[in-house]
Amino acid sequence: MAASLFLTEGFVPSLVPLLEKKINSDKVEQAALQMLSAACVDSACREAIKKHCLQWLKGVMNDGKDDRPAVAAVVLAKVLDPTAPQKDTGGKAEQDTNGVN
């Protein structure tokens, strides 16, 4: 459910321009980073973040303050991790296909 809200047409592409307007709100930037981090549980959300937020995240990681560079680094690691699962299982463990239980 949350992924469908996050992936609503135009939401992710419009997020970074809003954050880049230098709204001078540390709380808003921190909340956005936490939201992006949480959204990374879904593969489609990871792809949207990678496509639309990568440069902004790199900027926060390099120039941010407080703990924001660390949170941005975590989000970047999640979206750039080549070992991340390609298919979400909806929170269910995948069954072993070799018949051993």
Which geometry do the CA atoms define?
globular
Please, what is the average pLDDT?
82
Number of strands: 0
Low-confidence stretches: 87-101
Give me the secondary-structure category.
Answer: mainly alpha
What share of residues are in beta strands? under 5%
List the total number of helices. Answer: 5
- Rg calc: 16 Å
User: Can you give the helix content as a percent range?
Assistant: 55-70%
Helices and strands, in order, run as HHHHH
| First-to-last CA distance | 32 Å
Taking the sheet with the most strands, its summary is:
none
Question: Can you describe this structure?
Answer:
This protein is mostly helical. The protein contains five helices and no strands. The longest helix is centred in the middle third of the chain and has 21 residues. The radius of gyration is 16 Å and the shape is globular.
Care to give the gist of this entry?
This protein is mostly helical and 101 residues long. 62% of the residues lie in helices and 0% in strands. It has helices at 2-6, 11-20, 26-39, 43-63, 68-80.
SSE blueprint:
Elements: H1 2-6, H2 11-20, H3 26-39, H4 43-63, H5 68-80
Helix pairs in contact: 2-4, 3-5, 4-5
How would you describe this structure in keywords?
single chain; 101 residues; mainly alpha; 62% helix; 0% strand; globular; disordered C terminus
